[in-house]
Amino acid sequence: MRRPFAVLLLACACSLGGGAGSDAALATDGSGGDGTGGPDSTPEGGGCVPDCEGKGCGDDGCGGTCGKCPNGMVCNEFLGRCMGECKPACGGRECGDDGCGGSCGSCGAGTVCDDGPGACVAGCTPSCAGKDCGDDGCGGGCGTCPLDKQCSASKCVAAASCHNGKKDGGESDVDCGGGCDACQYGMACGSGADCKSGLCDGGFCGSPPSCSNSTQDGLETDRDCGGKDCPPCTNGQACFQHSDCLSSTCTGSRCTEPSCFDNVWNQGEVDTDCAGPCQARCPDGARCVGSNDCRGKSCVDGTCCKQNACGTCGDTPAEVCNGKDDDCDGSADEPAEVGAGGPCPKQTGVCKGSQKSCHGAQGWACTAATYGAHAGAYQADETKCDSLDNDCDGQTDEAPLCSCNPSCTNKKCGDDGCGGSCGSCPAGDQCLGGQCVGGAACGANPAKTCKGKCGGAGTGGCQCDALCAFVGGCCPDFNDCCDVCQPSCSGRECGNDGCGGSCGTCASGETCSGGQCVGGGGCGANQSLTCKGACGGQGVGCWCDSACISKGDCCPDRVDCCGSCKPDCG
């Protein structure tokens, strides 16, 4: 172990008596030799300052280490560098060093290893008789010397001065080598440890490390190349890592020509051994620039992945209600795929149970079409009096729309005009114009018959014209003898039934148009259906005469434009 030079100087000064003008003045504390804490004073207790500058392994000069080498590499103690791959050599050896920092085995009790041949031999008895220090003959030590002394011939003797201008003690040259500072280039040396360059060639220190001295030195992996300071090496030269090589490929500690099978990312490959100059495409998870770099033909955000139906990575996206073909199957917003959108706001009347429908980019919504698809009776504005809550507002057939006064005057059967009935006929009879008409064969009762009398008075004081169907008095065989009209009110709530009867009456303020009751709203409120300027004749899109009442084709504003009129059928 090297001792700090300041410590050696102080030790010498003390042994020589110390006083003013003595060698104590050589102390390096900058205080004139009193050793009281100058900037360069020796650490308290004579400690050692480790020196690992330029080293990656080996001795730090204080009994410690500058680092360990990776598996398969060994440390060049002189250079402080981890050298290339090492193959253990234990052929014929049972113990000792394997040449790569490992061991060829250990010896049993009572034996020791003779490291030369690598053989286990009889045990050794240490011998330190008459010795102060040095080897005990069995690989151990006989002691260490104080800081102011060094071991020479197994005796502790006064330490050599490293600053006296003389070659003494264990120095290899004047004031350097041995226990002193390493020697400069050209000075005498006994080993590489005596030289700053770590090179002792022919007893003299070699040149300092250089990338142009035709010597492997410094951090070079081969002669004048490799490492962090020199240019990369050419193929065949030694290397530690890919960056040591001009080819960027270090295989088996040698620089080699790059290939698509060297398990190294080099030569312009997109990822290790794939794409770029290589024929093989890159697997999922590897780097990529475009889809052609990948086996799965899909490159997303610089990574190869398995391509889905949409040509992107991962699972195929689920279809959602947004007007887009999310799952790339050629259709957007398929009901079976997007499912239901939840209940609609209106949940009363015919809207009960309605669900939101998908409206493309607008998303889920409930429109009049949605409610209409759910229930055919739905109306945004209720106009029917059918005992249903058509507009889903919680009310059924509200007034005044559905205010109706039943009318059964001169009727024994049929509709009362408000959805009710004026009565039913006996078996065998039928209701015609509010009257029950018998089903006897024509002329079955000669005393009361329409046979040959249709359209006027029958035999026996009964009638055979259409009027009798409304006022009564028809002959029993009226239906069988005469061509009886069959009323038709399908889809009509007012107006003529086609046989001179009525399909119903409208509420006050409304008129019958096209078989439907329509509100007023003022004369001319609806320019496409109006009597404005046309009373007594044909209006715009409808009629304004008195006949329209029985025919059911009055304009909705007939009453507002032309006034009300009471038919005279007396």
Description:
- It is a single chain.
- The protein is mostly loops and 570 residues long.
- The strands form nine sheets. Strands 1-2 form a two-stranded antiparallel sheet.
- The longest helix is centred in the first third of the chain and has 11 residues.
- The protein is rod-shaped.
- The N and C termini lie far apart (146 Å).
- Spans with pLDDT under 50 lasting ≥5 residues? 1-45, 565-570
Structural class: little secondary structure
Question: Which range does the strand content fall in?
Answer: 5-15%
- Largest sheet descriptor: 2 strands, antiparallel
Number of helices: 7
Please list the strands of the largest sheet in the order they lie side by side: 1-2
Mean pLDDT: 78
If you compute it from the alpha carbons, what radius of gyration comes out, rounded to the nearest whole angstrom?
60 Å
How far do the termini sit from each other? 146 Å
List how many beta strands DSSP finds: 18
Instruction: Write down the overall geometry.
Output: rod-shaped
Helix content: under 10%
Order of helices and strands: HEEEEEEEEEEEEHEEHEEHHEEHH
Give the key terms:
570 residues, little secondary structure, disordered N terminus
How is this structure best summarized?
With 570 residues, the chain is largely without helices or strands. It is built from seven helices and 18 strands.
